[in-house]
Each structure stands twice: as structure tokens, then as C-alpha cells.
UniProtKB/TrEMBL annotation:
Keyword annotations of the record: Nucleus
Annotated Helicase ATP-binding domain residues: 1-105
InterPro entries linked to this entry: Helicase_ATP-bd, P-loop_NTPase, SNF2-like_sf, SNF2_N
Primary site of residence: nucleus
Protein name: Helicase ATP-binding domain-containing protein
UniProt entry tagged with the keyword Nucleus: yes
Record GO cellular component, one term: nucleus
PANTHER family: CHROMODOMAIN-HELICASE-DNA-BINDING PROTEIN 3-RELATED-RELATED (PTHR45623), SWI_SNF RELATED, MATRIX ASSOCIATED, ACTIN DEPENDENT REGULATOR OF CHROMATIN, SUBFAMILY A, MEMBER 1 (PTHR45623:SF55)
Lineage of the species this protein comes from: Eukaryota, Metazoa, Chordata, Craniata, Vertebrata
Tagged with keyword Nucleus: yes
Origin species: Cirrhinus mrigala (Mrigala)
Length: 105
């Protein structure tokens, strides 16, 4: 997945924005893997409490100077109004079997 997103940016000129939805327990691992395998791909991670998220959205996400947003399923539900503002190029879902319907937890 990470190599594919790097390929899209560097060989197909498709920098993003892309979204990678992952279980909360794997967020930091995904960020470390982006830094390790494609350090030229700017990946950001939306996590935190309400105030931290608001500052991150204002200061990092809305300026849009990033290629990939890594976040959890829960964050997408909480911040869906923000995520709707972007024209996502690709969406990657890790462990997609966890998503049954929009009411599942």
C-alpha cells in the first residue's frame, strides 16, 4: 500500500490527497512505515482529543500541504464534515472487514 502511494506520486504524478483508514492501535506503526519506505511522501496523522484535532485540522489539514492522511475509523466518523471537504484520490482501508455499516462500532 505504501509503495503504491509512493509510485502514484513519483511515477504517475498523483500526489493525493489520499486517505488511509486503519485501526487506532496501528496508527503509529503506519506513520513509521511511511517514513521508512517513502520519506518523500508527506503523511499526516489525525488523532487526539477535540481541541487537538481542531488545531490539527486548522493548521495542518486545511492548508493541504500533505499527500496522505492516516487516521482511524472513529476519527472519520467524528470529523466527517472535515473529510467531506477533500477530493480524495485514493482511499485505503486496513482491516476493512471491521466496517460492517455506518452504525457499527
Amino acid at each position: 500500500t505504501i509503495a503504491l502511494l509512493g509510485y502514484l506520486k513519483h511515477y504517475r504524478n498523483i500526489p493525493g490527497p489520499h486517505m488511509v483508514l486503519v485501526p487506532k492501535s496501528t496508527l503509529h506503526n503506519w506513520m513509521n512505515e511511511f517514513k521508512r519506505w517513502v520519506p518523500t511522501l508527506k503523511a499526516v496523522c489525525l488523532i487526539g482529543d477535540k481541541d487537538e484535532r481542531a488545531a490539527f485540522i486548522r493548521d495542518v489539514m486545511m492548508p493541504g500541504e500533505w499527500d496522505v492522511c492516516v487516521t482511524s475509523y472513529e476519527m472519520v466518523i467524528r470529523e466527517k464534515s472535515v473529510f467531506k471537504k477533500f477530493n480524495w484520490r485514493y482511499l485505503v482501508i486496513d482491516e476493512a472487514h471491521r466496517i460492517k455499516n455506518e452504525k457499527s462500532k
